[in-house]
Amino acid sequence: MPSRRTVLRGTLASLLVPDVATTATASPASSPSRILIDVGGRFPKHALTGTFALLSVQDDTLLIHNPARADQEFLPASTFKVPNSLIALEAGAVADENVVLKWDAKKHSVGPQSSWKDQSLRTALPASAVWFYQEMARRVGETTMKEWLDRIGYGNRSTAGGLDQFWLSGGLRITPRQQMEFVRRVYADELPFSERTRGIVKDILVLETTADYVLRGKTGVARPDGQPGVGWFVGWIERGSRAWIFVSNIAMDANTDLALRKSVALEILADLGLLGG
Fold this sequence. Notes:
Blueprint: H1 4-11, E1 23-26, E2 35-38, H2 42-45, E3 50-56, E4 61-65, H3 67-70, H4 81-91, H5 121-127, H6 130-140, H7 142-152, H8 176-187, H9 195-204, E5 206-209, E6 214-222, E7 229-239, E8 242-252, H10 260-271
Antiparallel strand pairs: 1-2, 3-4, 3-8, 5-6, 6-7, 7-8
Helix pairs in contact: 4-6
């Protein structure tokens, strides 16, 4: 009899979860018993409010927790580094992923302190170097940035609040569902960027590579004054010829552990058998 993990991995492709549900029940032919798949169970265990969605790309099937929150708009925060990287490369704001920009302590004391050093696209994305991507946006320019947000249909497409602030504390908003569709289009090479640009960004998004899978993703957090905080983890998993897009979005206050943005999603993915051998 196949293990629960093997059965889950093999049957995710055939699961279709109604948007009103947080769980799905599958009865695969290879399993004599019914399997309950709950993608929301990890949230109460961590006393979190949030949403999680998982899309099986090849079958266009969906597992989702808290669909109402999945339709709410939030600041994208550092998840915007993904489109920012694509736009910066395509617009020639930086020649490639290895060009290093010098960190100027007098101008760039923002973001994680660990990122306060010279950076390239290859290092700045995993380091979530805010200052680097603010410089990328300035180099792209407001007109070109707006044109690209319109072309790719990213969220509400707003650059209000300043060219180097609009995704951090300004007017840009995106729903978790929209994030999922954007990430799916990145994976599927459906965005209007060159093959070179798309390849570079996919490469710098890699978080883990094993014999069984490749995990790509980006976290983000926004705690704007006077507004509810939000934590993100978006990306996809490839196992052979199959892929699953995931979006995790949690409410963040001053006391919320920052690591939960990512760890809750990884726990759910492990529960579903998509991580590990």
